[in-house]
Amino acid sequence: MEQKRCIYSPVKTGGANTLVPARKNLLIRGWSRIMMMAQSTVSVQPAMVLTSDNFKVNQWSSGMCDCCEDMGICCCGLFCTYCLMCKTSEDFGECLCLPLLEICFGGMLHPITFAMRSSMRERYHIQGSIQNDCCAVTCCPVCVWCQMAREIKARRHNLVVINSTVHTVHQQPQAFNQPTQAVNMGYQPPQAINPGY
Fold it and tell me: From CA 127, how far away is CA 5, in angstroms rounded?
């Protein structure tokens, strides 16, 4: 009478290691790979952004007192300063209500205006210094907000987007505690040899 020997291999199921016949182990691994391959990841590459040369590089696009360049911004700054401040802050990518914190300082200090101007100068690589920002904010904070609003408008108007296509990338997610090499579904494990019969 011939005895068949089966090769067993460990498989982690339900948090415990159990022994499963090797063929069934390959089948379990194969199906888990197929299920993982059904998922795909879409990756969007950032587009290159170029600016036009309509304004001087490393300089403000307009002066602090050039309110006549954009009368809409000037009138908004004159008649509804906090509306202009909030809109400019939002357009710059900061919290919409951030400029309203200046109300807490009673109109004497303008730390939010100072921080926004310095941050804008750093982001756009505009020449200047913290001392210049401090003097400008202290002398006329409304003019500073008008200048920042014009700068954002000029920078947005002169953007050119290149290569804005979406590329789909298919990635195979890795399952927890699974081997990283591919499983050959046509693989047949070696049969046990009974010596001496």
Answer: 81
| Mean pLDDT, the chain, integer | 75
DSSP, collapsed to helix, strand or coil, labels residue 134 as: helix
CA-atom Rg of the chain in angstroms: 33
Per DSSP, helices labelled H in 17-67 are 22-37
Q: Return contacts of 72-76, CB within 8 angstroms, 24+ apart.
A: 73/146, 73/149, 73/150, 73/153, 74/146, 76/149
Query: Residue 139: beta bridge partners?
Result: none
What average pLDDT does this structure show over 67-77?
91
Alpha-carbon dihedral 61, 67, 71, 72, rounded to 10 degrees? 70
d(CA 25, CA 30): 9
Region of residue 64 (phi > 0: left; psi between -120 and 50: alpha; otherwise: beta): alpha
Cα separation, 132 vs 114, whole angstroms: 10
